[in-house]
Amino acid sequence: MMRIRLIRFFHTKIIKLDEGKIYFALLPQCLCGRQARLTGFSSYASALNGWTQDALYGDTRACVGVAEIYLRGLGVKSNPKQAAEWYRKAATLGDASAQYQLASMYQQGQGVSPNDEMAVEWYLKAAEQGLPGAQYQLGLHYYDGFGVTQSYLKAAEWLNKAAQQGDPKAQYRAGILYKNAQGGPQDLKQAKDLFLLAANQGDTDAQLELARLYASNKGQTADCEPALGWYRKAAQHCNINAQYELAILYKSGTCASKDLPRALIWLQRAADQGHARAQYSLSGMYQHGLGVKTDQVTALKWALLAHKNGATKPDATLVSNKKISAKEHKKLKKEIELWQPKKSKCARA
C-alpha cells in the first residue's frame, strides 16, 4: 500500500508520495464547493515554479501552494513575509483557507506586524464562507475582546456556528458560555450536550467539564459513575486539572471509594507537571503519612514547590521541623531552584 507523508499547516496540505511526486490540495473543509485538482511535480523547486506561474494567472490554490512552500521552507529558505503576500493574493480573491491563514499570521505577527484588527477582518471573511476554524477563532476574539469590541453574544454566535460543524474546541467553548450564562441565560443541559460532543472527540477540557457537571449535579445526588469515567478519561490523556481533581475524589472518598494509594499516584502525576494545588496536597500526604510512609523532607520539598508556583506558604511546623537538618534544607533550596516540570506519560491508575 502506498504510504503518504503529510505536511499539513492549518487548512492546506502539501503531500509527497513515495513515487517522488509532490501534490497540493485544499483540505476537504476548505474546498467550499470546489473540486480538488492535484497536479504532480518531481520536486519542491518544480512545484514552486509551476504553482508560481499558475498563481500569477489568479489560481488561488496555486497561490496557497506557493505560500505554504515559503512558510514551511520546503526546498527553499523559510520566508514568512513572502508567504504572507501569497496568502494575501489568494485571500483577496476569496479563498477561505488563505483568509484564515492570513488572519492567523496577523494574530501571531508571523511575516506581518501583529494586528488583531486585521486578524478579525480576515477571520470574518473566512468565517462567513463557513470555515469552522475561522468561526472558532472569531468567537474567541469576541470572547476576549481582541481586535473587536468584547461581546459574549457575538462569541456565542460564532462558536455555535463552528460547534454545529463538529469542531470540538468550539463545542467546548460554547459549552462554557452556556454553563457560565455568558451571552445568554444559563443552560446546563445545552452545556452538557456540547461538552459530550467534544468529549467524544477526545477534547480533555470538555471531558473534565462533563465530569464536574456529573459530580456536582447542582444540588441533586451526584451521578458518580459517569463523573468518575470522564475524570479518568481526561486524566489518562494528560489533563492536569483532571488528574488533580480525580486524586481529591480518591483522597476524600467523594464519588469514589476512598483509595489513598491511588490518590497519591494521581497527585504525583499532576505535581510532577507543576500543578500547585497537587503539589500542596502531595506535601500533606507525605507530612501525615497518608497512603505513603511519612517523609518530612519530601513533604517540605513539595510544599516549597507549591508555594513557588502560587500556592499558600508551607506549614510553619513543617518548615521548622527539627528532623530536617540544615544540610537537607540547603539541598532542598538548590533542588527547588533547579526543578522543572516533567512531561507526563499519562498512563492508567
TrEMBL record:
UniProt xrefs under InterPro entries: Sel1-like, Sel1_AlgK, TPR-like_helical_dom_sf
Fetch the Pfam families from UniProt: Sel1 (PF08238)
**Highest taxon in the source lineage:** Bacteria
What Gene3D superfamilies is this protein classified in?
Answer: Tetratricopeptide repeat domain (1.25.40.10)
* Family matches, as PANTHER family: ERAD-ASSOCIATED E3 UBIQUITIN-PROTEIN LIGASE COMPONENT HRD3 (PTHR11102:SF160), SEL-1-LIKE PROTEIN (PTHR11102)
**Which protein, by its recorded name, is this?**
SEL1-like repeat protein
Lineage, opening ranks? Bacteria, Pseudomonadati, Pseudomonadota, Betaproteobacteria, Burkholderiales
